[in-house]
Please model this.
Amino acid sequence: EGEFKLNFVNSNIGQNKFDSINFKIDLSKVESTRFINFQSDILDFNIKGDFLLDDTFNLLSYQSSKLAYALSQKLSEINPVEFVENESSTLKMLQNNKVYSNKDIYLDYSFNFKDFKFIAALLNRDQVEISGKGYGYLENNSENFSISATMDVDWLFLFKGKDVFYISGVESTIDIGADNNQFSFDNIFGSLSFSSEEMVSELNINSIQ
Model:
């Protein structure tokens, strides 16, 4: 528990100069509920729930490996000529590390986008601006795993030279779940939705006001 701050003063990224870049993480706990509040010039990200960081990291790593294995097995069924890799060692690893999926974990999170000048410099863009927010949750027990993420973007604008990308009114949600006692693709379920009101890409322009 505690508060951690990190400040970069008079920083340069390429041709871009920043007077300051600030990051702050506040860790706290009330009874069994943990809180992680990350604040920065780029975004704010908040997490709360009943979890341990090590257990959560191990769980996400394990579930990612399990999903990759299940997908590989399904592709092998569809086209065995192209996907002939022996996955028995991966399955054995998943079975041996199943303890990671037995942990009781619940957390929910939310975030808000802020100033993306720093991101624009990292991406070598003249300008990156975004307005939006997101939220979701992660839940796990010995039987099931589920994770959900929703992002609502009012608008996203990327500009470099005479090229621009613009999208607005984005609503997207992804849900993934799995049976923690099975390793096949048939025991993984999920849904994905995406919609937007307007999008402009690779449009050459002389100026933007």
Remarks:
- Confidence is low (pLDDT under 50) at residues 204-209.
- Residues 53-78 form the longest helix (26 residues).
